[in-house]
Amino acid sequence: MHRTYAEYAAVLHARLGIGANGDGAKALRLLSRIQAGNQVRSVDELYKEMVLERPTTFAAADRAVEHFDDLESAYTAMRTEEQKQELLAPITDLHDRKAAALASTRELDAFGVAATGDTPVRLWLLRTHARLLGAAVEANRQGRTRLADELQASARAVTALDTDLEAAKDEHRSAGGASLERLAADIEREQVLREERVGRRGGLLDRMAPLLDLEAFGPGEDERGLGSREEFTELVARAGHWLAEHPREAEALVARRDEVMGSRYPLLARRKELENERASLEGRSGRSPSSCTRCAARWRGPAGCR
Fold it and tell me: How far is CA 3 from CA 6, 8, 11, 92, in A?
């Protein structure tokens, strides 16, 4: 707060930096006249528009911007012209092709290709078709004749071969061929019989495997007991003996099992007694047998002792 206008004016002039030797009234009057003639929104705008001069660099910058705008316009125009040239380059070739197609169409129209009804092209097509069909019919006729001749020749050859075959068979049979055929049939029949017997022998070996004595024969002898009639008879007798002795051996084994089971009960009772003794020793400090302890307990009761 200032007491007088002079003090306020001195502070304002000093803060604004106007007026020499404290004389800022002239500057304020000049500002008042300027504001009366032009609308001034701020002191900064006043100085920029009416006090300070426009730098020359602004004009150079404006000229540079305008120059770049001209370059951009020139480049855009050149690019547009280039696209036009690329688009219109094949137009000459396309025009030539169009002219050639029109000429070809006129030639075809002259022959009536696209027209309906009787036309020169239709006549040529039918004549060509008829000529091709005639050539195919003639080729088929000639082929059929050739195949018929070949068929007759083949039939004659087959007849001749059949005659030669019958003659060869007669000659073969007269030279002993019938015996050879009979022997071949016998050999084939015996082979079938042998294969059947081999299969039956294998099944018999599988069924008799439990009856074979492994200790009486050496290892690897899979056909032991079937080498001869005597071995087979011995094997049958041994099997019959085993079957006869089996009930008695089974009864002996059952008796032995019962004996073992009977001897098991005393052992179990003794084991139970020892377990009770051990439990009794674990529950008291003395080392006397449990029977003595029980007797002492029975006598202490009537006597009134603890």
Answer: 9, 8, 12, 96
